[in-house]
Design brief:
This protein has 156 residues and is mostly helical. 72% of the residues lie in helices and 0% in strands. Helix 2 packs antiparallel against helix 3.
Length: 156
């Protein structure tokens, strides 16, 4: 099986996850970001198609406001699993932050076609439509997202 993750790559990934879990448990804000990213980089060096490592690397970069690096890591993840809704939503968010709304719309296509569209994807879709000046579509999308969660202050 070509996509089976080698033990060494899995070890690096598990170490990164453990550090992140300890930080969360101790209410620390990514105290060991460099160590986590170092382990994730080693994991993907060992196995280029290690989806979970690319996804987590993208999330860590986005969480530390390194949007371009997050986008690049998530792009690697989405190439491995193009139908992953969470990664599609994250990479769309990164695309919007990088002022690439048309690209965000491209990444949201899969999420919007799924049976259960994540609310975050609906919000990003509305925002991306507004950024490309498709006003009627944006208003409709904002309305649909707001109907799903009327208490959402971000949508108001």
């Amino acid at each position: 099986m070509p996509d089976e993750v080698p033990i060494k790559a899995k070890k690096y990934y598990d170490e990164a996850v453990t550090i992140l879990q300890e930080d969360i448990a101790n209410r620390r804000i990514l105290r060991a970001t460099d160590q986590v990213l170092g382990n994730l980089k080693k994991a993907v060096e060992e196995h280029q198609r290690f989806f979970e490592a690319w996804r987590l690397m993208g999330e860590v970069y986005l969480g530390t406001e390194q949007t371009l690096l997050g986008y690049l890591a998530l792009r690697r993840a989405i190439k491995i699993k193009p139908d992953d809704l969470a990664v599609g939503t994250l990479i769309a968010e990164a695309s919007l932050i990088l002022e690439r709304p048309a690209l965000a719309l491209k990444y949201l296509e899969t999420a919007l076609e799924s049976d259960e569209v994540p609310l975050a994807a609906k919000k990003l879709h509305a925002l991306a439509l507004a950024k490309v000046e498709k006003w009627e579509d944006a208003l409709r999308a904002f309305g649909e997202a707001l109907a799903e969660d009327p208490s959402d202050g971000d949508m108001r």
